[in-house]
Write a structure and sequence with these properties.
With about 475 residues, the protein is of the alpha+beta class. Helices cover about 30% and strands about 20% of the residues.
């Protein structure tokens, strides 16, 4: 048997739920019953107010920071966290998300301790999104909220989706309210949960989230094409970097010109099971990029007209647990999109060389300082942040640095976020001007990705238009 505390928190003004129960049974009951009592989960609401200082509408950094607060030095040892929030800012349609520790740096109060730099210790449920489907205050809203909590906690125990029958691990969004026939774990999942105390693949904080090739979104799984008219192209702006240099992977999904309209899963993100980024290590070992976030398939699709391109980028220099490209040598990177059960589209390969220690490192080491590394990864900071001011000083002193473009891009995004978040008009205008200065500089730099260049120019128009 393994004993775990389920620490529950609420972000910002997110309203408290009247109960953390489903059909009269609390959350721990379902895990204890399904695991034949191998999982002794105990709800702990003593810290429910500890996370109120975080905004109800949270981004990934805020969720991880709230989790740190919630489970730090748990009263009775092992703990996992369940956060109730308003909405997930990067993906407002998400009902819930399971997330890892993220891009850990040693100066975090908890991140510097090995026992906290672990996968699968927390999840969040987004009540505003659930309310859009069920209506605040209804019985269906309460049931959907706890169903989603149990679903995401299932991912914490390394369960994957099961769409073949009604159960807790069925897709997280359903048009109609769920009946009681959903409030169960399948027999295979019960067997999996029953070995939690002895298998690190199951134990929260054990091994990374497992292979998810069997996980599919409802719409694409049933209606996906048997032949693909889609091409995926990836690229990077630089092919030589230091282990701590900011690196963006540009991703373009093309509908071929003679294809007609193409429907693809709206899940072009390594946090979804249908989209993967693979990295071949200099030793020849192939590893899956470990996204710090794990989204439930939404069933939503994106339609591309003939010749149309969907473009985005992913910061791949950091992943769950820390830096991605840690050792010198040449890496090969490619991406895969599972269009349907029958079709997988593979991108081209790109090579990137991580340079060994040398003269360049001395000046660049400032970028590896934990506070600055975290700022470059999340592109979030307050205007008083000493790390932001230190990075600004570095940028002024080394204007010809090959990282100048990505640094300007990060700083510009930070000031753009500040401009959007402040109410005072003069402060907003000041932050907007600072953002525009850095974003224009980023857009003109030769060593910056095409998507970052596009976003830079778009943001400048929005801020100054």
């Amino acid at each position: 048997m393994i004993k775990l505390e389920l620490m529950i928190g609420h972000l910002g003004e997110t309203p408290l739920l009247e109960r953390h129960a489903l059909s009269g049974k609390d959350i721990p009951y379902y895990f204890g019953d399904a695991s034949s009592k191998d999982i002794a989960l105990v709800s702990n609401t003593s810290r429910i107010e500890w996370t109120r200082d975080f905004k109800a509408n949270a981004n990934s950094l805020e969720l991880r920071s709230a989790l740190n607060v919630l489970i730090a030095d748990a009263p009775n040892g092992n703990a996992i966290g369940l956060l109730f929030a308003g909405r997930y800012v990067p993906k407002p349609s998400a009902l819930g998300v399971m997330f890892d520790r993220g891009f850990a740096t040693w100066d975090d109060k908890e991140g510097g301790r090995p026992e906290y730099a672990v996968p699968r210790q927390g999840c969040a449920v987004f009540l505003d999104r659930i309310a859009e489907l069920r209506g605040y205050g209804t019985a269906e809203f309460a049931d959907e909220s706890i169903y989603t909590a149990i679903h995401e906690l299932g991912h914490v125990f390394n369960l994957v989706h099961r769409e073949d029958e009604h159960n807790f691990m069925a897709g997280s969004e359903k048009k109609d309210p769920r009946g009681a026939d959903y409030f169960r774990f399948t027999e295979p999942d019960q067997l999996w949960l029953g070995i939690c105390s002895m298998n690190p693949m199951v134990t929260p904080g054990g091994l990374p989230f497992r292979d998810r090739t069997g996980s599919w979104s409802n719409v694409a799984a049933k209606n996906g094409p048997r032949t693909s008219n889609v091409r995926i192209e990836i690229s990077i702006a630089r092919n030589q970097v230091l282990p701590f240099d900011p690196v963006e992977l540009d991703i373009r999904v093309h509908a071929l010109p003679k294809s007609g309209k193409v429907v693809i899963p709206d899940e072009i993100d390594p946090g979804y099971p249908r989209f993967r980024i693979w990295i071949e290590h200099p030793s020849g070992e192939r590893l899956l990029y470990r996204s710090p976030r794990h989204y439930c398939p939404s069933g939503k699709t994106r339609t591309l007209n003939p010749g149309e391109v969907f473009e985005r980028d992913v910061s791949i220099f950091g992943q769950s647990g820390g830096y991605t490209l840690r050792e010198p040598g040449e890496y090969t990177i490619w991406a895969e999109l599972y269009i349907s059960r029958y079709v997988t589209v593979r991108s081209n390969d790109v090579q990137i060389e991580v340079l060994p220690p040398g003269p360049k490192w001395k000046k660049q080491l400032i970028l590896a300082e934990p506070g600055i590394a975290r700022l470059l990864y999340y592109r979030r900071a307050s205007h008083r942040s000493r790390h932001l001011h230190k990075l600004l000083t570095y940028r002024r002193e080394f204007g010809r640095d090959y990282n100048a473009g990505v640094i300007d891009y990060a700083i510009g995004r930070i000031y753009a976020n500040l401009a959007k978040s402040v109410k005072d008009k003069s402060s907003r205008n000041k932050n907007a001007r600072l953002a525009a200065t850095h974003l224009n500089s980023a857009a003109d730099h030769p060593l910056i990705g095409s998507n970052a260049r596009r976003i830079s120019r778009t943001l400048v128009k929005e801020l100054l238009g």
